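for the recovery benchmark. tokens below, seq after
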């Protein structure tokens, strides 16, 4: 279901879309033991996803479960992940999206019915983010001949629509498996002369100059200190605008994420980092860019802040 264009706004009049949380009366928790039962029941579908997915629970349950957050030790789990692959965040992300993560997210980004209700909800949320990014990109005119860098392109969910609009697309992803899937999909949907140029690369190694640089749902895999450098680098590649999406960090969402880490699921997942809008805006302003459009995309299990920035 498309989001109305009114989601997009100028920086002087920011649209706010409140998440649609499940009915709080379902989570009328009166004891710690009942809290555990409620969360366990709520994450039945999430077991097939991973800790990057944040289950959005009712406000009443969050208040009751906040005290349990201290039981989690996500940093220890993150260190173990890094040790397994012999590196830091980048190596963990590369390993995950070339193995378990590729199969999982290929289904989520695809059209198969082999997804549970949480995965299907995330598919809808990501599709809304792509749709609204396209609204930002096309509202000022045709994309024919416009150079666009799609950084962290995944399976091509944005690259292919951009190419269909006539943009000259350079698409990259840290995962070779994701790039192979994106290339296959692009060849099925586009004539040879309109195909994006796909490459396996991480954000920090990208080079060149583009009219527009887009990076959707990637910053969640990196802590703020690394995200700052990535944002600065992406801005250095762009001539006219940068479009980013990220999981917003608020007290409420942070508690939900920590609760989700109580139930990491049966398979290894990437680390998940939330970013405050103020931190992202500060990183952009530091390198001479300002945010001009903002939007918030939410479904029951997916939330993402979408921004467009231009040179100051």
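predicted aa per position
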């Amino acid at each position: 279901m498309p989001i109305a264009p009114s989601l997009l706004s100028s920086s002087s009049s920011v649209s706010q879309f409140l998440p649609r949380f499940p009915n709080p009366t379902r989570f009328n928790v009166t004891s710690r033991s009942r809290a555990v039962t409620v969360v366990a029941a709520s994450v039945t579908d999430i077991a097939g996803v991973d800790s990057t997915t944040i289950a959005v629970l009712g406000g009443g349950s969050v208040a009751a479960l906040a005290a349990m957050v201290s039981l989690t030790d996500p940093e220890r789990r993150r260190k173990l992940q890094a040790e397994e692959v012999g590196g830091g965040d980048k190596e963990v992300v590369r390993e995950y999206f070339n193995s378990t993560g590729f199969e999982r997210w290929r289904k989520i980004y695809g059209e198969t019915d082999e997804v549970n209700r949480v995965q299907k909800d995330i598919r809808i949320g990501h599709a809304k983010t792509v749709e609204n990014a396209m609204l930002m990109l096309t509202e000022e005119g045709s994309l024919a001949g416009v150079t666009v860098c799609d950084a962290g392109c995944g399976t091509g969910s944005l690259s292919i629509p951009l190419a269909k609009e006539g943009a000259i697309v350079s698409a990259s992803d840290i995962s070779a498996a994701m790039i192979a899937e994106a290339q296959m999909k692009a060849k099925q949907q586009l004539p040879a002369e309109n195909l994006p140029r796909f490459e396996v690369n991480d954000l920090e190694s990208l080079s060149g100059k583009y009219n527009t640089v887009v990076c959707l749902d990637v910053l969640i895999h990196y802590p703020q200190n690394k995200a700052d450098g990535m944002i600065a680098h992406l801005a250095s590649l762009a001539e006219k605008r940068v479009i980013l999406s990220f999981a917003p960090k608020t007290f409420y969402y942070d508690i939900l994420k920590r609760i989700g880490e109580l139930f990491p699921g049966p398979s290894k997942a990437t680390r998940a980092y939330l970013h405050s809008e103020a931190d992202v805006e500060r990183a952009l302003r530091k390198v001479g860019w300002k945010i001009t459009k903002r939007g918030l995309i939410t479904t029951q299990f997916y939330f993402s802040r979408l921004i467009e920035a231009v040179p100051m």
